[in-house]
Amino acid sequence: MRAFVAVSPPPEVREAVVERARGLRYEGEVRWLPPENVHLTLKFLGEVPEDALAAVSAALDGACGEHGPFGVELPDFGAFPSRERAKAVWAAVGAGSGELGALAADIEGALEGLGFPREKRPYLPHATVGRARGRPARLPEAEATGEPLGFRVRSVELVRSRLLPSGAVYSVLSSSPLGDA
After folding, report:
1. What is the reported pLDDT for 144?
2. pLDDT digits (tens, 9 = 90+) for 145-178
3. Within 13 Å, how many C-alpha atoms sit on residue 25's CB side?
4. Does the active-site annotation cover 126?
5. How many CB atoms lie within 10 A of CB 6?
6. Annotated catalytic residue 67
7. Contact (CB, 8 A) for 58 and 113
8. Which end of the chain is more exposed for a tag (fewer CB within 10 A), N or C?
9. Residue 142 has what pLDDT?
10. Alpha-helix residue ranges (DSSP H) falling in 23-77
């Protein structure tokens, strides 16, 4: 099964970030994600055999136990690969990006021993909120979106991803709480 490791903001933050994203000035067509699909990916795993899920969950428990809860803020938006040729629109992480990076690095290390290769690109914490339809979209300028949307990270989830014609459907396989560090 296809899976990834992520932090899921609370429902009210997911809804607010998608609502703000829909209000951005942009050129082109963008398909906005449903709020329930908004998350901060820590590690994409790809195909994971069912008999490996228990070991993956245990490794996540160990890595997450080394980190205490922390706050995250989503202050503005960006795009991949650039604002001029946006294929994906995302909510940037301000406060909490260092903690997310450290957590992602420890998860990389814990899962490498189970055969999951380390990501070659540097970790950039973000929450994808939309994807361009067809041609890339254009986000003309960075925009202040009001007060940053904030939440507290208390756990990390192992998530199954099923790709359907209507879009991705996610289901939580396990949750690993952060420790008291």
Report:
1. 58
2. 678 899 999 999 999 999 888 778 999 999 999 9
3. 5
4. yes
5. 21
6. no
7. no
8. C
9. 58
10. 53-65
Compute the distance between CA of residue 178 and CA of residue 107 in angstroms, rounded to an integer.
12
Per-residue model confidence (pLDDT) at position 25: 84
**Least confident window among 6-10, 23-27, 112-116:** 23-27
Catalytic residue among 125, 126, 137, 176: 126
- Give the 3-state secondary structure of residue 142: coil
- Please pick, among 14, 20, 39, 67, the residue that the annotation labels catalytic: 39
pLDDT attached to residue 140: 75
Burial class, 47, CB count within 10 angstroms (exposed 0-12 / middle 13-18 / buried 19+): exposed
Contact indicator for 174, 57 with CB cutoff of 8 Å: yes
**Helix, strand, or coil (residue 104):** helix
Q: Is the pLDDT of residue 76 over 70?
A: yes
CATH superfamily for domain 2-177: Cyclic phosphodiesterase (3.90.1140.10)
Q: Is residue 27 a contact partner of residue 137, using CB atoms and an 8 Å limit?
A: yes
